[in-house]
From TrEMBL, chains A, B:
<feature type="domain" description="FAD-binding">
    <location>
        <begin position="8"/>
        <end position="356"/>
    </location>
</feature>
<dbReference type="GO" id="GO:0071949">
    <property type="term" value="F:FAD binding"/>
</dbReference>
<comment type="function">
    <text>Catalyzes the hydroxylation of L-kynurenine (L-Kyn) to form 3-hydroxy-L-kynurenine (L-3OHKyn). Required for synthesis of quinolinic acid.</text>
</comment>
<dbReference type="GO" id="GO:0004502">
    <property type="term" value="F:kynurenine 3-monooxygenase activity"/>
</dbReference>
<dbReference type="GO" id="GO:0043420">
    <property type="term" value="P:anthranilate metabolic process"/>
</dbReference>
<keyword id="KW-0285">Flavoprotein</keyword>
<keyword id="KW-0812">Transmembrane</keyword>
<dbReference type="InterPro" id="IPR027545">
    <property type="entry name" value="Kynurenine_monooxygenase"/>
</dbReference>
<keyword id="KW-0472">Membrane</keyword>
<dbReference type="GO" id="GO:0006569">
    <property type="term" value="P:L-tryptophan catabolic process"/>
</dbReference>
<keyword id="KW-0521">NADP</keyword>
<dbReference type="InterPro" id="IPR002938">
    <property type="entry name" value="FAD-bd"/>
</dbReference>
<keyword id="KW-0662">Pyridine nucleotide biosynthesis</keyword>
<protein>
    <recommendedName>
        <fullName>Kynurenine 3-monooxygenase</fullName>
        <ecNumber>1.14.13.9</ecNumber>
    </recommendedName>
</protein>
<dbReference type="GO" id="GO:0070189">
    <property type="term" value="P:kynurenine metabolic process"/>
</dbReference>
<keyword id="KW-0503">Monooxygenase</keyword>
<comment type="pathway">
    <text>Cofactor biosynthesis; NAD(+) biosynthesis; quinolinate from L-kynurenine: step 1/3.</text>
</comment>
């Protein structure tokens, strides 16, 4: 289908905004990207980001516009988890089959490169341009120094809101009637910390692993950077016995790490430096609908669907939005109303599905890991999956190493849960968990299930 | 407990704002009520309100501050439903026991009187004072002609947000981290219409009834006014075969009423006048948390919990907020932080419960009334309840004619649903529904239930 070049505004120069700029430039549109923040290429990173794990969906979207290889140079493939328990040597879990890996990439490094690429393709970036209002019907955005000062008006044909979980563009849509919206915070916060490189620039932990120190209601993770360092995240409840609220002095923080993460205390010289320098951040699930306004405005990425980070799919889902949107554009040419309708109708159920999967992973991590039944169930699933890999694809693999819709992964997970609910009710399951009786029962239930 | 007089702002001069002003004046506080709209006593009503049904919770709250009797003069008790089916004479369903009734009151008439009463008690009302911003920590509100114009600052000790489902006060709280929020619109809209009085000032339908014309996915209701008229509401899907979207011409509207509501066509001279004059409005369930900010700001009524109107409890729930808040104030004196904490902790689950009950009533109305199983179930419940009134209190009665917490009413409803799920699975239930076997089975299940 023919595309008439449009004068398009993208609000937000983050990962999704930059990639969308690249896609739309390739279609011949005139692109202006507005961002209220300074050019990320000229300032230090914020110290509040979790390293990204690029998986298949993200790579697909990058490959489509020919930038997969240049971005791969910024990342490190992690083909396994490294699990660190207290007082035990670390052990490894392969993610999947040969060559299946997720890629650790620094958000800042990636974002800088993506903006470079979009600029090379001809997108115009206007940094420190604060958007305060949007006339949805006119696709006009208003920017200025302050909310109350003088505003400049920029008229466009189409506006894309790629301005994240607290989107200004969505904010404007939200004030209209019949706009469904929800934001739900979890009671766990996170803080970025850094494990520095060795003096010779090498990594202090295995470079090709996603490192996890699970501790029930809290955990610490580390992901490798090219410079030999690891970007780490401490996930910890805001309130309660062991919580951010109760870590207010240097001594308390040192004691906390010495007790629960002694191996980290050994490789970070003074863990309290980052701890008090970096902010404690909150995590939210945000859902809304509609995502579009007539043929004028559309939300893409976190502005349409923010998820908690426990599946590592936030950016991947946003990139997949663009990949799918591009396919829809190819079908409907200049009919932007149909493009936007189709886009939101097709993507919304998948966004809801990855939100649900991400939240479930958080619940598993924070409340089920100490539950004996849950541990047994996971053991049975793994045992069965090893014997019948073609009959029991882990949901994680379906989400991470596949481009099948998220809704299918959720349905797969539900079907497996249903089967396991039956299995866990079998008499003496604690003793017979690895028996043929259980194996055959699972096989039988699988044969009766519609989603497996 | 002693109360030190505070300088308190109430944002919103609606029903909840005015009643709260009366309560707080009685405790000796200095009260200023701000409202962006003109004085409702000096302008015509909006033509978009559903008449109110004051029930026990509302009366309790009015009685506590001695205004029950003056308000009762504005209302008409409705002790029964009048059901109007096409081609059948209307029939009546008593609401409850002797003297149990809900009271029809015009929102505008009630609001005017409540403002008078609050003013008599010494509350100051500042109308057409548009609140644009609130400094939560300082309890300072900013008002002005326009969002971008010059603002005046008013410093208070405490600010109450009683400014409804689209509250400005909440809007400010919502921008803080860890504020949970959701708004969910239903796909049914409503429109106000009026059945005028007879020429001699009498009512055209039975005056002491809540009139309902149920038609499956849509319905028409009428509630009496003192002047002989009825304030009516048409509930109808926004889109679909029979919908507001498809009623765009006078002929279509006339045809619609002639077909589905012939009796109304007869008593409203020209139904199309109101239909095209009055707006079509949307309905939303709004939930949020927290409701308070330290000892400075609290949300009361719809600003904290807006519900769909199908249980007639929106205003009653808001009035009960105030009644309960007053009890908490009596306990904790000047400790406003504890007062606000206790208030939100105690009220939030009840607000969620009435939201759920209201939504379920909508679902029953819009999708289950044509379901044969559902009709049979309701018939069995009614049959049993008449035989054993002490063992099967309808949830409606628990909500409407009681001051027990909404959470208990929801639990009662859930327990009854569970029992009926068993009953509906009994073989040949269609034939044995009024048999002793079923009766005994229900009695047996009740004896085993914890919530009955």
């Amino acid at each position: 289908m023919i595309q008439t070049p449009k004068n398009i505004a993208i609000v937000g120069s983050g990962l999704v905004g930059s990639l969308l700029a690249i896609y739309l430039r390739k279609l011949g549109h005139q692109i202006t990207v507005y961002d209220r923040r300074p050019d990320i290429r000229k300032v230090a990173f914020s110290g509040r980001s979790i390293n990204l794990a690029m998986s298949d969906r993200g790579w697909n979207a990058l490959r489509e516009v020919g930038v997969e290889e240049v971005i791969k140079e910024l990342g490190i493939p992690m083909d396994k988890r490294a699990i660190h328990l207290v007082g035990e040597p670390e052990y490894y879990q392969k993610y999947g089959k040969e060559k299946e890996a997720i890629w650790s990439i620094s958000r800042g490094v990636l974002n800088r490169r993506m903006i470079d690429l979009a600029e090379e393709d001809g997108a115009i970036f206007r940094f420190e341009e604060k958007v305060w209002d949007i006339d949805l019907a006119e696709a006009t955005i208003y920017t200025g120094e302050s909310d109350k000062g003088k505003w400049d008006a920029y008229k466009h044909d189409i506006v894309f809101g790629c301005d994240g979980a607290f989107s200004r563009v969505r904010h404007k849509m939200q004030r209209r009637s019949r706009f469904d919206y929800s934001q739900d915070f979890i009671d766990v916060g996170y803080k970025e910390l850094t494990i520095p490189a060795n003096e010779d620039g090498t990594h202090k932990l295995d470079k090709y692993s996603f490192h996890i120190w699970p501790r029930g209601k809290f955990m610490f993770i580390a992901m490798p950077n090219l410079d030999g360092s690891f970007t780490c995240t401490l996930f910890l409840p805001f309130e309660g016995e062991i919580s951010f609220e109760n870590l207010t002095t240097k001594d308390e923080v040192k004691e906390f790490f010495n007790t629960y993460f002694p191996s980290i205390s050994q490789i970070i010289e003074d863990v309290t430096l980052d701890f008090f320098k970096n902010p404690t951040s909150a995590m939210v699930t945000m859902k809304c609908f509609p995502w579009t306004y007539w043929n004028k405005v559309a939300l893409v990425g976190d502005s349409a669907h923010a998820v908690v980070p426990f599946y590592g799919q936030g950016m991947n889902a946003g990139f997949e939005d663009i990949y799918e949107l591009n396919k829809i554009i190819a079908k409907h040419g200049d009919d932007w109303e149909t493009i936007f309708q189709t886009y939101q109708t097709e993507r919304k159920p998948n966004a809801d599905a990855i939100a649900e999967l991400s939240y479930r992973n958080f619940m598993e991590m924070s409340s089920k890991t100490a539950d004996a039944n849950f541990i047994l169930q996971k053991k049975i699933e793994k045992h069965f999956s090893l014997k019948h890999p073609e009959k029991w694809l882990p949901v994680y693999s379906r989400v991470t190493f596949s481009d099948r819709p998220y809704v299918e992964a959720l349905a797969l997970g539900d079907a497996q849960e249903e089967i396991m609910a039956h299995i866990m009710k079998m008499p003496n399951i604690e003793e017979i968990w690895n028996s043929e009786v259980v194996e055959n029962k699972i096989l039988d239930l699988i044969s009766k299930s519609e989603n497996l």
